[in-house]
């Protein structure tokens, strides 16, 4: 069964736009959990454009023992203001999973994965640090990646396939090559002993095709499209629709 982890970044975007506490991140998480999601994802960025460190701490209390907690971030981005750095934050809240993403501040969103051959040695001590506190470690990778020996060597347990290009190709009606790259990357990762997650721009429209093509898909983390769809259909109903697609 593929776990649905709902990314709540966009709830925090809306909340921060007015400077108050509404819409409530806690209520959104509670609604998703009661609708049946298996996890919650957040991506606290150093510029705190949406998820803040105190959100991360609050969610850790709310989720503990109920659903998986996946925190994403760039492990090389240091502390800034009240953002303590990803490893420091993880040491505080001990999430189920840490997904390492090579995002820079200048990016409007995540748009690429790690080059595992080039980045493995730099990532190794950080992966060890997250493993030491009991977090499962997942590395964000591009579709088309085939050499997972470096990821295994440094102790990663999962990879998350960046599905942005797949979603774009799907929207243009030419999904073949993009989907085939995801399929091969998933196959090679599983062959190396890694479990496979996926995320970015997945939606009710494109998820079914992706899920059907990737045997053993462990988890999808979905936020932008899901929260947008929830504006029309309601958050609980939208989560249930995704669960039906994954069933
Ligand atoms: C890693 C990834 O693809 C997304 O999880 C990321 O969280 C998107 O970040 P924004 O919500 O800031 O666009
Ligand atoms: N890792 C992907 C994620 O958490 C959500 O990405 P998106 O659905 O907001 O594009």
Q: What secondary-structure arrangement, pairings included, does this model have?
A:
Layout: E1 3-7, H1 9-16, H2 25-35, E2 39-42, H3 53-63, E3 68-73, H4 86-93, E4 97-100, H5 116-132, E5 136-142, H6 149-153, E6 158-162, H7 164-171, H8 176-191, E7 195-199, H9 207-213, E8 219-222, H10 224-233, H11 235-246
Parallel strand pairs: 1-2, 1-8, 2-3, 3-4, 4-5, 5-6, 6-7, 7-8
The structure holds 1-deoxy-D-xylulose-5-phosphate and the ligand NCC(=O)COP(=O)(O)O.
Describe this structure in words.
α2 packs parallel to α3, α2 crosses α11 (235-246) and α7 (164-171) packs antiparallel against α8 (176-191). 46% of the residues lie in helices and 16% in strands. It has eleven helices and eight strands. Strands 1-2-3-4-5-6-7-8 form an eight-stranded parallel β-barrel, surrounded by seven helices. It has helices at residues 9-16, 25-35, 53-63, 86-93, 116-132, 149-153, 164-171, 176-191, 207-213, 224-233, 235-246, and strands at 3-7, 39-42, 68-73, 97-100, 136-142, 158-162, 195-199, 219-222. It has a single domain, classed as Aldolase class I (TIM Barrel). The longest helix has 17 residues, at 116-132. It is of the alpha/beta class and 247 residues long. The N and C termini lie close together (7 Å). The structure holds 1-deoxy-D-xylulose-5-phosphate and the ligand NCC(=O)COP(=O)(O)O. Ligand LD2JLWAY is lined by residues 7, 41, 72, 160, 199-202, 221-225.
